[in-house]
Design brief:
Helix 2 packs antiparallel against helix 4, helix 3 crosses helix 4 and helix 9 packs across helix 10. The chain is built from 15 helices and 21 strands. The protein is an alpha/beta fold and 487 residues long. Bound molecules: ligand TXE.
Length: 487
């Protein structure tokens, strides 16, 4: 299998200038070869996107919306097939790809498809005149994706961009080239003009070419803070608009009046879903002293029952992390936790067998790790690990935990568990995070804006808020009288 570009409505033959092997994280067997987009291919993608934009921008919102909703239905009709591709490429359990990844991509297309006809400006009565505004598209937008949610990220970016009348060139992560191509095929099948959604493969160099390209109007990235800073700086030279969805080290605060069972469930969801490779994860779990021991006991018992294994097995609950290099990085963090004095309560080892006794030693598996006896200054409590590693910290008072939770340059997410309704809101309102939950964690309905404070990002994805990031506002003044001239 060769993964090439999708330009102007078709998969290209590609040229094997710069290429690399794409591996299945569950066994490190090759899945195929990725051909990086050449400069000529990037230019061809831009030319084709420009042509598509000229056609697309003249369509009514309802016409655009119909194509997006068709594409959502196509993804849903291919749920099993695309979920399997995603699972083989990313290493996450098929149960997750089926329940979340593909469905969340389809939800975004349906939501923005439904909204497209309603995107409108405003009207202003003026003295002997009136004014109105138009929400106009930006032009060609670039989407740059991370490897943890490949099709979801592609759809979260494409859906609002296309609903607003833009075209998009999407570059998936160099580690997950597969399902963006499926989304591109779905758009074509749904009736999109050729070139409306092009895909170019490649690493950061191709990403940087898109950022620098003078005919690309906007860049939306999901990735690390370090890459976000580079893209922000690159876009600044042409004052391009950016949306940045970056990493985090988010707090999950459990007060002693919380429902213990639910709080433990949320802490596990906040750390072990997709092998812990989720940007919004609540990796600093603050537990109030009175319930600390009972919380820890239940968390340990339930964590040790997580079924690690073949991601394509529907009973598997935790799959393999994205690459050998990433596994080594996570293990380095675990070693750092141990050497800094934290106690590894469970997990953090590379299992040889899965929950059915099958040999999984060739894959990038790691048992879910819980650290206790942590303090805020340890590396494992400050840096984003992006793996199944949870750190528990105890606290006494509300004021103390708010200060400690906010003591980070990140600000993507935060969660609070309490049965005191006033305290829940009071605490959430003081946390410096863009995406928050009370009595749940990591739920991201398309209706709610998603994004970060501080160094976790710029702009918002999903919801009505995304519309303003994919349009520019034109004001029009219309005279009803004579021109009053001093000349
Ligand atoms: O991210 P990168 P990676 C975080 C997490 C993880 C780290 C590394 O901390 O450990 O990122 O993951 C492209 N100009 N998140 O390596 O390197 C790159 O090719 C333009 C958080 O995936 O930031 C890829 O397509 N583009 C995240 C994308 O940027 C560039 C989810 C992200 O790559 C570029 C995944 C450049 N100079 C990882 N350099 C989340 N917030 O969900 C790289 N790229």
């Amino acid at each position: 299998m060769v993964y090439t570009q999708f330009i102007n409505g078709e998969v290209t033959k590609g040229s094997k200038g710069n290429s690399w092997v794409n591996y299945n994280p569950a066994n490190n067997a090759p899945l195929g070869e990725i051909y990086q987009a050449t400069d000529d291919e990037i230019d061809a993608a831009v030319n084709s996107s420009e042509k598509a934009f000229q056609i697309w921008k003249t369509k009514t919102g309802a016409e655009r919306g119909r194509v997006l909703i068709n594409a959502a239905n196509i993804l849903r009709s291919k749920l099993q097939q695309i979920a399997l591709l995603e699972t083989q490429d990313v290493g996450k359990p098929i149960a997750e790809s089926l329940a979340v990844d593909i469905s969340s991509a389809a939800d975004a297309l349906e939501y923005f498809g439904g909204m497209a006809a309603g995107i409108h400006g405003e009207f202003f009565d003026l003295k002997n005149a009136f004014g109105y505004t138009r929400r106009e598209p930006l032009g060609i937008c670039a989407g740059i994706g991370a490897w943890n949610y490949p099709i979801q990220i592609a759809a979260w970016k494409a859906a609002p961009a296309l609903a607003c009348g833009n075209s998009m060139i999407f570059k998936p992560s160099e580690l997950t080239p597969v399902t963006a191509l499926e989304l591109a095929k779905a758009f074509m099948e749904a009736g999109a003009p050729a070139g409306l959604f092009n895909v170019v493969q490649g690493d950061g160099k191709v990403g940087a070419r898109l950022v620098d390209h003078p005919r690309i109007a906007k860049v939306s990235l999901t990735g690390s803070v370090a890459t976000g800073k580079k893209i922000f700086a690159g876009a600044a030279s042409q004052l391009k608009q950016v949306t940045l969805e970056l990493g985090g080290k988010s707090p999950l605060i459990i007060f002693d009046d919380a429902d213990l069972q639910n709080a433990v469930s949320a802490a596990m969801l906040a750390n072990f879903y997709t092998q812990g490779e989720v940007c919004s994860n609540g990796t600093r779990v603050f537990v109030q002293r009175k319930i600390f021991d009972s919380f820890l006991k239940q968390l340990k018992e339930r964590t040790e029952k997580i079924r690690i294994g073949d991601p394509t097995d529907p009973d598997t609950q935790m799959g393999a992390v994205i690459s050998k290099a990433h596994l080594e990085k996570i293990i380095r963090f675990i070693d750092s936790g141990k050497s800094s004095g934290a106690r590894l309560l469970t997990g953090g080892i590379k299992p040889e067998k899965d929950f059915k006794g099958k040999d999984i030693s060739s894959g990038n598996f790691l048992s879910p790790a819980i650290f206790t006896d942590c303090n805020d200054s340890m590396e494992i409590c400050k840096e984003e690990i992006f793996g199944p590693v949870l750190s528990i910290l105890s606290f006494d008072s509300e004021e103390e935990v708010i200060d400690r939770a906010n003591d980070t340059p990140f600000g993507l997410s935060a969660g609070v568990f309490t049965n005191d309704i006033k305290r829940g809101h009071r605490v959430i309102h003081q946390l410096q995070a863009g995406t928050c939950w009370i009595n749940n964690y990591n739920i991201t309905p398309i209706e709610l804006p998603f994004g970060g404070y501080k160094q976790s990002g710029q702009g918002r994805e999903n919801s009505l808020a995304a519309i303003q990031h994919y349009t520019q506002l034109k004001s029009v003044y219309v005279e009803l009288g004579n021109v009053e001239s001093p000349y």
